[in-house]
């Protein structure tokens, strides 16, 4: 059996992959196009259009926008219209000056109530709601980044399993040929029954791995179908033809570390959640101060229907009012303490997410670079094992070596070929993980705000992030 041509190590494949824009162009939004796989591109596009988790995230954005409308309404007067008719009879035994008399009352008008936002509580509520909208938008982007990574990862898994099945089937054929030769030699008295039994065992052992690979391939196909918002078997006709394991570029530029704070949706989401919590502290503090209202009414009131629209039937009133809590058993200050503690929790979470993001990028860079080296070594091992297998089979056919050497050579060849297929899979998966770690993918569908806008509207990087960035600027990152 012929082995695939080895991937010879080159300067590019062994180069340091890092946060350098000079070594390679920075990651583009549509990172999956670097694999040059039309079906993968199609699956990515369909997943972005129909995935159910994305639809849920979009619904959360609409909820946040509706909430913004609710909290912003108190900035404007609240006006109610009302109309009423009352028929009243006075008691004969009551204190009325006209016992037993009946009367009508017709009323219609408007009531208005307007809170003057003197201490900014309403404005802080609006600020919190707007930050929540931004967080919801970044949450959808984070879901999208994760979705694209899952689609890419499952597709790579599926293709690698197809290749491993093909390799196994090919090895079974080689081993069957060896078994047939051994049986002929046994019939001629040139081999032992033990050799035949060992050959049969090796064929059966190799064949036993095929059902497991097929099971895993089907499961990967099912996951892809669900990610696209379709039934599990909907992609069978597209995915059944055997395809190559996607292969990306050897060297990947991921920009400078500071870009990570702007690109990763989960970092942006965490920062917006922190901003919303900070604004909620202002809302809680507002309750310490007086609340000023202007109330008024205008309308018509008459005891006779015919006089209802006369000028003299008009009624009106307007005036300010103030409310100020005098005693609340510490409720307001306890609420301030609660909001402050929640803000401190989110601040710690924000810094933790930044550190986690940097770790994920570093891990992905190391894994991608080192797995390429491992893949190249395995490619050379496959060539050596292929040559060893050919020699062992030739020597055995000539009676110059024992059958155990043939078994060992074929087993080593199969294991090295399978390891190479897995390594090729891991290289692609590590590249997908790298793209996911740097937050790539969502820019294709979303309008990216400019860096200047982000720098003015978003919180500055935390002290933890600033220290990491300073360190990153003084050394080459792997």
How would you describe this protein?
The chain has 478 residues and is α+β, with helices and mostly antiparallel strands. It has a single domain, classed as Outer membrane efflux proteins (OEP). The protein is built from eleven helices and four strands. Helix 2 (52-72) runs antiparallel to helix 3, helix 4 runs parallel beside helix 9 (403-437) and helix 8 (331-397) packs antiparallel against helix 9 (403-437). The chain is elongated.
By secondary-structure content and strand pairing, the structural class works out as: alpha+beta
Kindly report the oligomeric state of this protein: single chain
- Which stretches of 5+ consecutive residues score pLDDT under 50? 1-27, 446-462, 464-469, 471-478
In DSSP terms, counting alpha (H) and pi (I) runs of 4 or more, how many helices?
Answer: 11
Largest beta sheet, briefly? 4 strands, antiparallel
CATH architectural grouping: Up-down Bundle
**What is the count of structural domains?**
1
- How many whole angstroms does the radius of gyration measure? 37 Å
Strands in their spatial order, largest beta sheet: 1-2-3-4
User: Roughly what is the average pLDDT, rounded to an integer?
Assistant: 83
Instruction: List SSEs in N-to-C order.
Output: HHEEHHHHHEEHHHH
Question: What is the fold named in CATH at topology level?
Answer: Outer membrane efflux proteins (OEP)
CATH class: Mainly Alpha
In one word, what is the shape?
Answer: elongated
């Amino acid at each position: 059996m012929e082995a695939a041509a080895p991937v010879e190590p080159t300067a590019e494949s062994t180069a340091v992959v890092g946060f350098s824009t000079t070594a390679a162009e920075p990651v583009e939004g549509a990172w999956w196009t670097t694999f040059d796989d039309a079906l993968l591109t199609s699956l990515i596009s369909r997943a972005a259009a129909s995935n159910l988790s994305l639809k849920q995230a979009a619904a959360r954005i609409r909820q946040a926008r509706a909430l913004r409308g609710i909290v912003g309404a108190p900035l404007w007067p609240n006006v109610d219209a009302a109309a009423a008719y009352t028929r009243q009879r006075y008691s004969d035994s009551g204190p009325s000056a006209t016992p037993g008399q009946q009367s009508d009352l017709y009323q219609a008008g408007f009531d208005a109530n307007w809170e003057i936002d003197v201490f900014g509580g309403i404005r802080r509520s609006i600020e919190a709601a707007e930050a929540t909208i931004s967080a919801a938008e970044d949450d959808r982007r984070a879901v999208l980044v994760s979705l694209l990574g899952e689609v890419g990862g499952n597709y790579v898994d599926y293709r690698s399993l197809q290749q491993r099945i093909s390799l196994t089937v090919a090895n079974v054929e080689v081993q069957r040929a060896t078994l047939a030769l051994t049986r002929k030699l046994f019939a001629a008295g040139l081999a032992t029954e033990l050799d035949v039994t060992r050959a049969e065992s090796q064929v059966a052992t190799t064949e036993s791995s095929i059902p497991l690979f097929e099971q895993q391939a089907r499961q990967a196909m099912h996951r892809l179908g669900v990610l696209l918002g379709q039934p599990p078997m909907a992609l069978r006709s597209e995915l059944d033809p055997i395809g190559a394991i996607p292969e990306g570029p050897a060297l990947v530029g991921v920009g400078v570390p500071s870009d990570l704070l702007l690109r990763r949706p989960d970092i942006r989401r965490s920062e917006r959640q922190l901003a919303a919590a900070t604004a909620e502290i202002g809302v809680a503090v507002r309750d310490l101060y007086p609340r000023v209202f202007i109330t008024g009414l205008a309308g018509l009131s008459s005891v006779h229907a015919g006089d209802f629209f006369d000028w003299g039937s008009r009624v009106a009133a307007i005036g300010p009012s103030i409310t100020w809590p005098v005693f609340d058993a510490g409720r307001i200050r306890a609420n301030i303490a609660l909001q402050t503690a929640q803000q401190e929790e989110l601040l710690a979470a924000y810094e933790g997410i930044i550190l986690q993001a940097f770790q994920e990028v570093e891990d992905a860079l190391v894994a991608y670079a080192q797995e390429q080296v491992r893949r190249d070594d395995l490619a050379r091992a496959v060539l050596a094992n292929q040559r060893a297998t050919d020699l062992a089979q030739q020597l055995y056919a000539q009676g110059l070596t024992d059958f155990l050497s043939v078994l060992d050579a074929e087993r080593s060849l199969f294991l090295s070929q399978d390891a190479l297929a897995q390594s090729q899979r891991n290289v692609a998966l590590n590249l997908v993980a790298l793209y996911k770690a740097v937050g790539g993918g969502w820019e294709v569908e979303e309008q990216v705000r400019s860096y200047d806008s982000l720098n003015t509207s978003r919180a500055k990087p935390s002290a933890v992030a600033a220290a990491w960035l300073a360190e990153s600027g003084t050394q080459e990152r792997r």
